Amino acid sequence: MATDATIDRRITVYAVWLSLGPLGFCLMLQGIAFDHLLTGASGALVLAGAFMGHLIVNTYFDQTFTPGEIAFGTAVLALWGVLFLVSWVSFDLSTTDLLIAITFVLVTAGCVFGHIVTRHGGRGAFSRFHSRQPD
Amino acid sequence: MIALESPALWLFAFGSGFLGIALYWARIAVQQGTGARNFIDPVGTLPSFTAIIVISTSGFVPFFSIGLADGVAQNGFAYASMSLGCVLIPLAGVFLFKRIWALAVHLNTPSQASFLDEVFASKSLVVLSAVIAVLFAVAFGGRVMTAFALLYHDLTGGVFDPVYSLFLIASIVALIAVIGGIRAVMYSGAVYGAMGFLALIGLIGFTLFLAGGFERLADRIVDLQMNGEGTAPFFNLSGIVQFTLGSGFAPPDGSPWSTAMVLSATLAFMGLSASPVLYLFAVSSKSNRVFGPGLTWVSAGAVGAAIMAFAMIVGGFGLISNMPDITGEVMERVSELSPWFMAALYFGLFSLVFALISGSFLAAAQLGVVDIYRRYYHRDLSDKLAVASIRILVAILVLISVLMSITAPFLSAELASLCLPLAAQLLPAMVAACYRISIAHRSIAVGALIGVFCVFVTEPFGIRALDFVGLELPWGPAPWTIHSVGWGLFFNTGAVLVISVITRYHDQGERWNALTRFLESTFPAQPFSTPVISTAWSVALAWFFLAIGPGIAIGNSLFVRTVGREQENMLGLPSIVVWIMIAWASGVAMIWFFADRMQLATAHGSEVRKGQSAALAESGMRTDRMAVTVWIILGIAGTTATLAWIFG
Fold it and tell me: Most-buried pick from A113, B190, B287, B476 (CB within 10 A)?
């Protein structure tokens, strides 16, 4: 059974993502539908804002991402990537659409990188991916 | 791409997401236990911030129910003064919630009925609380769900039948309450609260976009005010009071929105804070420390600002565009431009009302099963069976609500309009319970019943019901342009005071004295200087007089200046609009003063230990009491039928 602190944190995380997530998602869709880079890019920035909100909540409750959150986030990004690749191959995407997608990828990468660096430090972040082979 | 531009598809997608997340929280609630303690008895157990978010977002529901923006679009800015109810809901909460919470924890009374029974030992108040809870669930809930169902039908371009849409909406509301109980409702309400608030802001923002920006909207409103023919009632309150016999007899000159109507109608919003469902939300909080800042800045500040903007901007745009159903119109415009945004807005707005509606069904079922059936008829009823009965009763109430909305929408709407006025009649009882003012506590029930009677005979439902049994009243709804709440509260408090004066030297009884001692020891009197106290009361009286009382008539022309032979608005907006905005801002400051400076809603007292419910003296099934109740109900029904047959 979840503890009270876990429930509090989970409610806050949901509140952050449910308020900013649909907004960012809709803005990106709007940018793609209307071929408007600024709108689409602002959607990506709103999603980055939600991610930062999640980090603030984690810091406040002195917790980190749960395995479920990491799995869900990765799955959503993977799904988004597959959708983008399928669209790129199957439809004639405009330059704006591509730029919006690239903005999203860059913002997401920036968020993940920023999180790892701020949490583990520059050297520590590198060590998360690199393990020295025993001599 | 055609499919992706279908509003129905996006509504379905967002609806599935909404339901999925709500079900997830219902599962979390179930994991925490399915006993009565977790399902329906939340006293002092849930995160405080969830209680504040749910209470604050619930404050929007009455304004959605009365169609605030649509009302402004049809009646003008005199009607916008109703939006000042967004100050009165948290104001009543500031006065009540901290002490109600302490008493509820001390007495272990999860429902308003059990609270009133413990404090006043009055069966009449228990029945009244139960009736209000059922009305909130069946009629008020039905009305709000119907509004959303009709919007769903319109937004999907008629793909979903209104009846089907209503069943869909109702099943979401019922499912969460039935599976997870009060915890699921509170958790879902909290996670959706911020989304709902943003959706409301989004709706207002999109209206500004349609209007061409704030300046253009203001210019067009002023143009209508200066050059429109017969538009004066849209921008002016029609005097202090009009001595007409109510709508249906002699219509008031200009508009029915006199200052007396504004004062009496806005008082109805205080009824929300005295309702059984908000009692349930408030006592669920882990602590009473949050009520002060939460009610001031979240409820009156943030949600209040959104409600004001909703009335002025969305309603104002409807007024200048001659679109009486402006909320639906704006949503349809959003749908044309961006179906995904429309779906997000729709479920965002739904999330604002979801917790209150779902909670209303739970509160009504809880009252029916625990506070009436178990308390008076079947004291051996186990917790497990009680929870199962509550679940079944929630499902039945939702079904009744839906069927009534479909088959008798007019009756449903009239019953819904009774909810807030009736709940407001419990205000004297709640104030007396919290402050132990020197009144005869037995007068409270008498006053409440007199208040209920006055509401009944000045509301369309009551007048029609009496007409049905052959009693034709010589007045219509809201006589003298005074809303039923005004009549009810006037006679209610009047009766309480008169009875108290007559019986003031009588002993109040040991139970009452013990509760008084508990409150005095928990919240010791603060050493405020006399000027601070008198300032507080002066501020409150001045605000009531100027913001919602007769003084609001000053707002008709205060910010208008004469240049030559022309009149112009000093601040670029109609004077009444500026006055209402100032009234809201000063109302927030007043709430802060009472909550924080006067410490009415900040915890300064000692810790409250959770008490045990009073031991049940009897056991077994009381079939004799059941028989009496059935005979009473049959007697009332028979008398009504006979009167209707003879005189109706």
Answer: B190
